[in-house]
User: Fold Aldo/keto reductase from Moheibacter lacus.
Amino acid sequence: MQKRRLGNTELEVAPIAFGGNVFGWTIDQEKSFEIIDEFVGSGFNLIDTANNYSYWVKGNDGGESERIIGNWLKKRRIRDKVVIATKVGGRNKQMDNPNTTRKHIMEEVDKSLMRLQTDYIDLYQTHYDDGKTPIEETLSAYQDLIKEGKIRWIGASNISPERLVESLEIAEKYNLPKYQTLQPEYNLYERENYETKFEAITLENGLSVMNYYSLASGFLTGKYRKTNDLSQSQRGKDVQKYLDERGIRILNALDEISFEYKTTAAVVALAWLLNRPSITAPIVSATSLSQMEAIKQAPLLDLNSSALMRLNEASEY
Assistant:
C-alpha cells in the first residue's frame, strides 16, 4: 500500500487513520485488540486517539482509549510499525473548557505516555485551541517536549483559521515547532467550513489533513435513511441533521456509484475523500471486522471523473 508523508516530517502513513475514540466506548479491550490487529495486519499504521477519550461514557474517567492502545502495544511489541497520534487540551471530567497552557500540556503528556506504555508520541495534537493562551506558550511547551524526546511532531485539530495561520507564522518567526497536520471535520456532507476556511491554508503551508467524521457518524454508509433508523446505534442521534434534501441527494449518488463499482456507499465516500487534493488520511472507526472492509477497500477504489463529478454535484453547498 502506497504511503503518504505527514507534512514535512519523516512519518509515512497508509492513507486511512483509525479513529480510536471507539476503544473503551462502543467496544471493549478484547474487541479493540481484534480490530487493531486487523487494521495493522491489512497494511495500515496510523492510530489516532486523545487523552480524554472516552470521558463522556458513564463510569469512564477519560484515557480509556489510550490505555487500551498501550496494552495492545505492550502485548504485540511492534511499536516501530505504527504511528501513534494523540491529543491534548480538550474538555474532560475535571475541565469544562479547552486548555492549551504550558502547565496543562506538561502534566498531560506524561499521563498519555504512561497510558500508551511508550517512550514517545509520534504526533501530538492540540485537540481544541483555547483561543486565549499565547501561541508562543503552547508552541514553546511542545518544543521542550520534542527536545526531551517525549513527542516527535505536532498537529492541530479544532482551531480557528486565524489562530492556525498565526501559529504557523509565530513558529516560523521564533523558530518554534510548526504544526504539520490539521484534523478538521470533513466529509461529503460537511464540506463548506473546511473548503472555504481551511483548505487553502493547508495547501499553501504543506499541512497534511487527517479529517474526522469521514463518514458523518455513519450517515454516509447509507444505514440511516429515515428517522426510524436513528435508533440503530449510539451515534444515531448525531445523524438526524443530515436527513434533509441534500443529505438524501448525497445518499442517492452514493447508491448509484456504489452499484456501478460493485462496492458499498462507505467505500465510495472514503474514496471521494482520498481524491481530494488536500486530504492525506481520513480518520475512520470500526467496531466490527465487517466494518473494516470499507477501510481496506477504499484506497483500492479508483473513481473515474464522472463519478467524482456526480458526487461533487450532489454534495454542492
In short: The chain has a mean pLDDT of 96. Strands lie at 4-5, 12-13, 17-19, 46-48, 83-88, 121-128, 151-158, 181-182, 208-209, 283-284. The CA atoms of residues 23 and 65 lie 5 Å apart. The longest strand covers residues 121-128.
